[in-house]
Amino acid sequence: MDGSEFDGDLIKRGEGGYERARREAVWNGRMPERMPDVIVRAATEDDVARAVRLAAREGLRVGVRSGGHSWAGNHVRDGGMLLDVSRLRAAEVDAESRAARVQPGLPGNELIARLAEEDLFFPAGHCPGVALGGYLLQGGFGWNGRVHGPACMSVEAVDLVTADGELLRADARQDADLLWAARGSGPGFFAAVTGFHVRLQPRPRVVANALFTYPVECLEPVFTWAQEVATEVRRTTEMMLFIHRGEDGEPEIVVTGPTLVDDPDEARDALAVLATCPVRSRARIEVPYIEATMADLYAGAHASYPDGSRYGVDNMWTHAPAAELMPLFDRIVETIPEAPSHMLWMNWGPGSEPAPARPDMAFSVEDDTYIALYGVWTDPADDAANVAWATDLMRAGEEHASGIQLADENLAERPARFIDEERMARLDALRDEWDPEGRFHPWMGRL
After folding, report:
1. What pLDDT is stored for residue 447 in this prediction?
2. What angle do CA 66, 40, 437 make, to 5 degrees?
3. What domains does the chain contain, in order, with CATH numbers?
4. Other beta carbons less than 10 A from residue 309's beta carbon
5. Cis peptide leading into residue 340 (ω within 30°)
6. Which of these, 387, 382, 346, 343, lies nearest to 71 by C-alpha position?
7. Which among 240, 318, 372, 446 would be 20 to 30 A from 348, CA to CA?
8. Are the CB atoms for 124 and 109 separated by under 8 Å?
9. In whole angstroms, what is the distance from residue 441 CA to residue 161 CA?
10. pLDDT tens digits, one per residue of 218-229
């Protein structure tokens, strides 16, 4: 086994450069203690096909990495092959038809910047650096996702390499089952995607936001109000509440609402609901309206998820009343680690307009409210405590959860429902059909 057939690199365990390549494949500073037998860094789509055929010849299982932002490093496994497609970053944009073909290694923020030149838009991920491959496969919760739905809904075809090394295109007319599976199966997808054909949207002309911060003593009235006004929030506004430690080191609540629309008056009207909190008089900071740019939104997200940090993350979907969640929130406040660790509460389902209809696809678990915990730290000595903070608290909230989303999965530590039972059965059947030898790794936490 050598790399002479590849335009990119093949590095075997024990060779020079192996450990660097392994570490570069994971964005989380808390590197998994798992060691692939070989790492292939593909330079072309043909390299991807060559790598899968090599894995078949050598009897290797394959984990695919597009950008490495998986908190759990799902793509890094003991033994087998780590297939790194992060160098595949091209985008072919057809502005007239509002369509594009994008490769899996392209970061979503770079796509948004490229599309802005054509007055176009795509609901890419909230954090800079998140590549489209893993993001689209797991569903895709991004900017204006409440308007356009999970980003996988905008995928109209996929180019992929099957378990036997065949490069093909799957769309609604041919191999439709593979397109169905690619829209939501995440790191359990049983093929290697080399290109996504996506539908684009007109670029929103105005990016605006609002910001209110409250002392933690306002926890119950703020979260109760947020749930009560959820049905008034426009789909163009992502109403989010955070619990984190402020500049004084004490826990506080932040209410914010990034809004992407075409007119400043429309943005002001949409954000007005965030100023209706009954304890607004106790707000420490009030910014009812401010215009921004997509670069500003990405910079704000990056501040909460800095490069080089260590992360422990878990999440849940829920429709539980705020009153039932208060004991969990109290525990989160009491135990929250140092900044920038935080809890995110996002109004996903309810809104002043109906959500876009979901097509038949593997993605199938979502709910009114999304809650996630992000432990963020730098000292390896704090690993166990911070991982346990996110994991144990989400475990404590399982009675209120309808499932999780794969973007912030913690399946190795806490298996949970992320696709409904009917669609999971169909996925298992399709895996048996398309990958009978188990060439591609399934999800961690599931055999």
Report:
1. 47
2. 85
3. 9-84 (3.30.43.10), 91-203 (3.30.465.10), 206-408 (3.40.462.20)
4. 17
5. yes
6. 387
7. 446
8. yes
9. 14
10. 999 999 999 999
Sheet of 167-171, strands arranged across: 91-94, 99-102, 192-199, 155-161, 167-171
Dump pLDDT digits (tens) for 244-274: 999 999 999 999 999 999 999 999 999 999 9
Count CB-CB contacts under 10 A for residue 399.
Answer: 9
Which position has the token pair 């809650």?
371
Q: What is the pLDDT of residues 313-333, one digit of tens each?
A: 999 999 999 999 999 999 999
pLDDT for residue 66 is more than 80:
yes
Token code pair at residue 217? 């003593």
Joined together, the tokens standing for residue 72 give: 């759990």
Picking from 44, 45, 22, 54, the residue whose alpha carbon sits closest to that of residue 35 is 22
- The number of beta carbons lying within 10 Å of the beta carbon of residue 335 is 13
Cβ atoms 236, 270 nearer than 8 A:
yes
Q: Angle between the 383-396 and 322-335 helix axes, to the nearest 10 degrees?
A: 170
Angle between helices 322-335 and 219-228 (to 10 degrees): 140
Residue 318 tokens read as: 């829920």
**Environment class of 99 (CB within 10 Å of its CB; exposed 0-12, middle 13-18, buried 19+):** middle
